[in-house]
């Protein structure tokens, strides 16, 4: 690749007032060779149950994963660029489908471990809340009944003592 820069440092007579050519530099052209080559290392590896070609820079940072796929006559190359070193989870762990080596939808195998949710445990927990709510209602009813009973007793005592 070649980069060229042309320049002239001769101001125009209309803007600078120069009228003679001895105050101007001649036009020049500067040419430099450029290179976009970056030294990398490449290795074939298995990741997430598939074969990939990985591209690393000299500091051993993953730059890209390349996967070649052939389905019948269809040939395809998938190139994924790495923007961080976080490569713990596989792409199939986020497609909302139970595939590859997953034990559940997007969990287990090479993905995050599955969390078991049994309906019996959920229902038992649900009924505990209903029982607590029923007990709370019963306590409120009992206390309000006692309050009314005590108030009637006070009113009755006041009438008895007031009539004597």
How would you characterize this protein structure?
The protein has helices at residues 13-16, 119-163, and strands at residues 2-7, 28-33, 40-47, 50-57, 62-71, 74-81. A hairpin with a 2-residue loop joins strand 3 and strand 4. The chain is elongated, with a radius of gyration of 41 Å. 30% of the residues lie in helices and 28% in strands. The strands form 2 sheets. It has a 4-stranded antiparallel β-sheet, with no helix packed on it. The protein has 2 helices and 6 strands; from the N terminus they run E-H-E-E-E-E-E-H. The chain is of the alpha+beta class. It starts with a strand and ends with a helix. The protein has 4 domains: 2-33, no CATH class; 40-87, no CATH class; 88-116, no CATH class; 121-164. Residues 14-19 have low confidence and may be disordered.
């Amino acid at each position: 690749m070649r980069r060229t820069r042309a320049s002239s440092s001769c101001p125009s007579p209309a803007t600078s007032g120069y009228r003679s050519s001895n105050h101007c530099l001649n036009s020049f052209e500067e040419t430099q060779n450029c290179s976009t080559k970056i030294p990398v290392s490449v290795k074939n590896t298995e990741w997430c149950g598939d074969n990939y070609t990985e591209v690393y820079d000299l500091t051993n940072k993953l730059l890209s994963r390349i996967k070649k796929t052939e389905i019948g006559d269809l040939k395809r190359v998938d190139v994924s660029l790495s923007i961080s070193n976080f490569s713990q989870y596989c792409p199939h762990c986020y497609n909302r489908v139970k595939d590859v080596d997953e034990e559940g939808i997007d969990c287990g195998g090479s993905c995050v471990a599955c969390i078991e949710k049994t309906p019996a445990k959920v229902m038992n927990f649900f009924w505990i809340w209903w029982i607590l709510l029923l007990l709370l209602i019963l306590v409120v009813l009992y206390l309000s009944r006692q309050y009314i009973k005590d108030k009637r007793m006070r009113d009755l005592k006041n009438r008895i003592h007031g009539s004597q």
